[in-house]
Specification:
elongated, 10 strands, alpha+beta
Length: 397
């Protein structure tokens, strides 16, 4: 008997007992769907975490690490501005550096008419907007003229608009921050993603921020390298230059987001593997269900097996017939499980706001594993059928 005929007989047997077949496949369906869902969500979550930490650009953060002596004399040394305008200009001269993102920030009280709120005020340079992709929902963004001229203008977050302006259109209105007036020219798009908390923020040109609040330096600096290969060299040159310039012993250091990203990736991959393994237990349970039903099928078809063997069917042919039937059951269950898992992952990603990464390796692995389950758990029933004595089988009722 050919493989095609065996497959036809397997489908005939499945269709002849529809409810039993569905219940048998249920364990395989749940197991495969769970593994596909867990892996897809895990990979999507990993990508979201990485994007939240590293963004889409090649960046490294430069920070100042006060010495023990400095911390003893000034416990707030961490909070002080440690980068001068001269530092920003010198960092921009490094060959491997594409842009220097500089900013200062502080919590201040903002007021519009009778409403007040504590808001994070950021003084930023033009590179900050480009690298961090501050997108405008209404109005306009800060432009070169605003930075050069130190204009008293600012852009606000959606949360600031909702808290301070209520139903009023903020564009063209004046908000007072620590007694200083600023015209609102734009409202940022509402942030999305895992770490989007809807913070209340106002962004001002760096020259405006420094002149209005008496600030002279920056407290946050991020370098964008020309390429990923230039990250390490750019960071090395930047810290060497700053330490020499300020006569510090390795006080200026770099915080490579790529390293943090890789660490996050390792944690999420381990968690995905652990949870996926737990979900895979249901595949084992489903395999036991397949074996149980196949043993029942062998018992029910004892007489049929006896007739086939009396007509010349070999042990190998009987073994192959029942193995293919077992594989067919698990394979159909695996395909349905993959479709359900992919659909479930898409729904989760839609509501969670992160990408659903369904890799072909996982899909093919699910199919292959389903077939392996069919072979392993179908071997005992198939072997039992192949070893039945034809005379005893014909007498079976």
């Amino acid at each position: 008997m050919s493989i095609i005929e065996n497959i036809r007989m397997a489908f005939s047997s499945v269709l002849a007992h529809k409810l039993r077949s569905i219940l048998t496949m249920l364990g395989i369906i749940i197991g495969v769907a769970s593994v596909i869902l867990v892996v897809a969500i895990g990979q999507g979550g990993e990508q979201m975490l990485k994007s939240q930490f590293t963004g889409s650009s090649n960046t490294i953060e430069v920070f100042y690490q006060p010495s023990d002596e400095e911390m003893q004399s000034n416990p707030n040394a961490y909070m002080e501005s440690t980068f001068t305008q001269s530092d920003i200009e010198d960092l921009g001269e490094i060959q491997e550096v594409s842009k220097v993102v500089a900013s200062s920030s502080e919590f201040m009280q903002a007021r519009f008419r009778e409403d007040t709120a504590d808001v994070s005020i950021y003084g930023i340079n033009q590179a900050y907007i480009e690298v961090n992709e501050l997108k405008i929902d209404s109005g306009r963004n800060l432009v070169e003229g605003d930075f050069i001229g130190g204009r008293r203008v600012g852009i606000i977050s959606q949360a600031t608009q909702e808290e301070l302006f209520k139903e009023t259109d903020p564009l063209g209105e004046v908000v007072w921050v620590n007694g200083q007036p600023f015209e609102i020219i734009g409202v940022l798009e509402k942030p999305t993603g895992l770490f989007s908390f809807g913070s209340m923020e106002i962004y001002l040109p760096s020259n405006t921020y420094r002149a209005s609040f008496g600030k002279t330096d920056f407290n946050q600096v991020t370098l964008q390298a020309k390429s990923a290969e230039d990250l390490q060299e750019a960071g090395k040159k930047a810290t060497t230059m700053l330490n020499q310039k300020h006569d510090k012993d390795e006080a200026y250091q770099v915080f490579n987001m790529e390293e943090i990203s890789e660490g996050i990736g390792q944690v999420t991959r381990i968690m995905t593997l652990i949870i996926g393994s737990i979900a895979g237990i249901s595949l084992f349970v489903g395999g036991i269900g397949v074996m149980n039903i196949m043993l029942v099928s062998v018992t029910e078809r004892t007489c049929e097996i006896g007739i086939r063997k009396a007509l010349g069917a070999t042990k190998r042919q009987i073994l192959t017939q029942f193995l293919i039937e077992s594989i067919t059951l698990t394979l159909i269950g695996g395909i349905i499980g993959i479709l359900l898992g992919a659909g479930g992952a898409s729904l989760v990603s839609l509501f969670a706001g992160w990408p659903s990464l369904i890799s072909w390796q996982v899909v093919l692995g699910g199919l292959a594993f389903s077939m392996i389950i069919g072979v392993i758990f179908g071997m005992l029933p198939a072997n039992k059928a192949a070893r039945l004595d034809p005379i005893e089988s014909l007498r079976y009722e």
